[in-house]
Amino acid sequence: MRMRQRRRTRTAGRRGWRYLVPLVAIAILGVAACSSGSASSGGGKTAAAKVVPKSKIKIAIVAGGPNVYFTTWGRVAQAMSYQLGVTVTYVVPPTPTYDPSVEVSTIDSLVAQGYNAFAVFPDGESAIKPTYQRLISRGIPVFDLAGCTTDPTPALLCYATNVKASATYETQVLEKAMGGSGSIAFLTGLLTDGNTALREQGVNQAITASGGKVKLAQLVSNIDSASAAPPAVESLLASKGSTLNGMLSTDYYPSVAAASILSSDPQFRHVLFIGQDNSPTVMNAIANHDIYGTMYQNDYGQADVAITWLYDILSKGCTVNPNGPFTPIPGPTSHFINSGYSLVSQATIGQFINKPENIPSNTAQVLAETSKFLSCP
After folding, report:
1. What pTM value is reported for the model?
2. Per CATH, is 17-161+298-340+357-375 categorized as 3.40.50.2300?
3. Is the separation of the CB atoms in 263 and 273 below 8 Å?
4. Which of 5, 56, 76, 210 could form a disulfide with 303 if both were Cys (CB 3.0 to 4.6 A apart)?
């Protein structure tokens, strides 16, 4: 699924032709092809507002790395490619981790292939910014998607979950379910994901507000991968499970691991757990009353809005309105739009199970305000 205060750097990596083959293999291609677009950034940076023929529009939706959260973007890209009659491609950088240098190489390869609009989950809040600047200077619009680069940033806007607020709310719900007191564990994501720091801040804010009634017994971070999450959760429950009252996860793979373990081992069923996103393992565990709930993001809507607006920028010559109704939150960028979050509980699971992770009301509201966010001829 679906912002940061830490900075991490990565050594510039291997770039070049050998990445083109994996990109073609994982791309979901639409209809036609090529050229350069434009937009005006909320930070005051303006690219030439030039109308691009439909036959030359190529939009790339770039994930941060291999994570199930992003797969919905691929389905949306494919659907909107046919709907709009232009090329819309979903791309996963060929790396097992969120590596900024590989993401940069991926974007450079796409530009060489004629892609002229980008929505990107940024690997790190600042490493990608020089690449963004190169794109903007060539009249290629760039959005941050599901995660934000820090101001000052060339990104025209960031459409993402308010992950700090979501984590605070998730913790508050867990505290209430526990009766207002007790000991909890917090499972979170990769240190290369800038959202991780904001989620930690959100959890700590809710714990502090309890006035000492709720205590953080363990923070387990950097485990948002299929290989790292299961042993980390098993180790946590083996060492502290008997004393924990609650547990929460703000990332996909720790949620799957915890839901799987709690579903199969009644020994730890006393630990109330709230996960993240809509893995079938998590959703079934909620339906079976093995875990308390999960936090939904709006990955479907993120791709929908980004593709729609990038298409408008290229096809109509629109620019991003620097005075649009952006969300004034404490965070990395002042040009943030909240893509929404919500809790799916045992009481509401029937409305969501076996359906895409989606918050249609948020998407509809944001699209209805297109004329406020975009200035079009």
Report:
1. 0.83
2. yes
3. no
4. 76
